[in-house]
């Protein structure tokens, strides 16, 4: 009994000792966890402090770097301003020295011309070294009053009076003022350079020699004068006629052909050009290439003339591959007709144009009747007015017969100037030398749709019938 009690007491003691051991171990674990947690907090505080210090250091470095860059930029700007100021001072001094030198040279020239030798001058005459000496003897001779009228007309395709009139009209547009470095080219010489270039088609280097001017100067003068002709003279000398003029034109064409209500004769010609750098295929002229056995490029000039051969409408610059009917459709004349401004009148064209309500063309089908033959003969007389006008245009201004040095974008202005000058010569009865006349070689292409108006077909048949019925038709086709 006593042994059992002792055993029970020993067991209890062991259990209590086991509990104490476990409690001690648990306390040690908790203590370890607390120590770890405190260590982590301490490390975090230190990390945050280090991060803050790094941030402050970076900000300080950034401020220092920014300040340094701003200071450098300010110093550089100050240096740049000082350099600009120094350059301006140097340029002013240079101009002052140059002006002084110019004044001394001018004074020396004046003294030399008056027979007084300036102090320190050499044996030879003083001259402006920046101007290349060129001879103007040829132009000085042409510009003299005693130069023969016939020789002047042969050189410039017009008489002295017509040339003088053109110069007077263009003075305000082309005159330039003299400068300290050189005198401006006079208006008469400017106009003469342009007209000579158009009349002869000579290369710019030859024009330069004749007029004693630089090649680039001659090129610039040609374009400037042509532009002035377009802006100043074209509104006066190349415009669609007014109502009174229309009535006179109708009467004159009717007296020639017997065909009523004709207000113009139309023709399209081709101007040879150098192969352009862009859209080469568009400017390729297949017909001229086949005839000449040489690759040809061109642009078109469509014109309407009155009975005197004076242009009343022109359309310039469409590519040479376009047939006549397509050029017509692109023109301002076609737009004018579409707006009803050519109602009840005719413009006579060749078989290259379509028959429309306002365009009258010859019969082209095979096996024509006598009436149709007679009509074609009379309408051919009107066609020849435009054909001969273009022949005089190209004969008078030889630059239109050869490939020009003028750039493609400048060519319409030059061609327009030629048409205006042609009109002035025609209106002032400036005859053209027969040796200058040429035969036009513009192959006509029958349009795909040649008959575009049933009303126009009936009107043409009626005109043809009336011509034969009233004995206005010719009979040359019978011979």
Automatic annotation (TrEMBL):
Record's subcellular location: Nucleus
Q: Which co-factors does it depend on?
A: a divalent metal cation
PANTHER family from the entry? Answer: OS05G0593000 PROTEIN, PTHR22930
Q: What is this protein called?
A: DDE Tnp4 domain-containing protein
Pfam families xrefs: DDE_Tnp_4
Positions of the DDE Tnp4 domain: 267-423
Say yes or no: keyword Metal-binding present. Answer: yes
Q: Which InterPro entries match?
A: HARBI1-like, HARBI1_dom
Task: Spell out the molecular function terms from Gene Ontology.
Answer: hydrolase activity; metal ion binding; nuclease activity
Q: What family is this?
A: Belongs to the HARBI1 family.
The GO cellular component terms are: nucleus
Sorted alphabetically, the keyword list is: Hydrolase, Metal-binding, Nuclease, Nucleus
What is the top-level taxon of the source organism? Eukaryota
Q: Origin organism of this chain?
A: Mikania micrantha (bitter vine)
**Could you confirm whether the keyword Nuclease appears in this record?**
yes
């Amino acid at each position: 009994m006593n042994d059992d009690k002792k055993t029970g007491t020993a067991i209890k003691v062991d259990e209590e000792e086991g509990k104490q051991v476990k409690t001690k171990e648990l306390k040690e674990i908790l203590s370890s966890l607390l120590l770890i947690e405190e260590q982590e907090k301490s490390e975090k505080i230190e990390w945050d402090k280090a991060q803050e210090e790094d941030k402050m250091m970076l900000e300080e470095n950034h401020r220092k770097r920014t300040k340094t860059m701003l200071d450098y930029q300010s110093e550089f700007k100050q240096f740049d301003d000082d350099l600009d100021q120094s350059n301006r001072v140097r340029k002013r001094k240079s101009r002052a020295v140059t002006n002084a030198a110019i004044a001394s040279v001018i004074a020396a020239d004046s003294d030399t011309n008056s027979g007084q030798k300036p102090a320190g001058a050499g044996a030879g005459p003083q001259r402006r070294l920046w101007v290349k000496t060129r001879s103007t003897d040829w132009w000085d001779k042409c510009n003299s009053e005693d130069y023969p009228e016939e020789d002047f007309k042969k050189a410039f395709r017009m008489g002295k009076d017509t040339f003088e009139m053109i110069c007077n009209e263009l003075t305000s547009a082309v005159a330039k003022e003299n400068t300290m470095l050189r005198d401006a080219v006079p208006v008469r010489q400017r106009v003469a350079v342009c007209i000579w270039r158009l009349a002869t088609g000579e290369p710019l280097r030859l024009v330069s020699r004749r007029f004693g001017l630089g090649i680039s100067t001659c090129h610039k003068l040609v374009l400037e004068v042509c532009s002035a002709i377009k802006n100043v003279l074209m509104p006066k000398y190349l415009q669609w006629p007014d109502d009174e003029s229309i009535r006179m034109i109708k009467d004159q064409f009717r007296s020639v052909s017997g065909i009523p209500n004709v207000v113009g004769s139309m023709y399209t010609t081709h101007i040879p050009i150098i192969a352009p750098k862009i859209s080469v295929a568009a400017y390729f002229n297949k017909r001229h290439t086949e005839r000449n056995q040489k690759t040809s490029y061109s642009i078109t000039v469509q014109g309407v003339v009155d009975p005197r051969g004076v242009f009343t409408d022109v359309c310039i610059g469409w590519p040479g591959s376009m047939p006549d009917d397509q050029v017509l459709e692109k023109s301002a004349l076609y737009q004018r007709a579409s707006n009803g401004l050519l109602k009840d009148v005719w413009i006579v064209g060749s078989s290259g144009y379509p028959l429309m309500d306002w365009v009258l063309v010859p019969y082209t089908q095979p096996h024509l009747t006598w009436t149709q033959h007679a009509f074609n003969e009379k309408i051919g007389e009107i066609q020849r007015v435009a054909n001969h006008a273009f022949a005089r245009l190209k004969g008078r201004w030889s630059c239109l017969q050869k490939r020009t040095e003028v750039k493609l974008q400048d060519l319409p202005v030059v061609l327009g100037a030629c048409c205006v000058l042609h009109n002035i010569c025609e209106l002032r009865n400036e005859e053209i030398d027969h040796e200058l006349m040429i035969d036009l070689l513009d192959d006509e292409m029958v349009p795909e749709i040649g008959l575009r108006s049933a009303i126009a077909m009936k009107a043409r048949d009626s005109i043809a019938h009336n011509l034969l019925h009233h004995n206005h038709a010719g009979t040359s086709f019978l011979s």
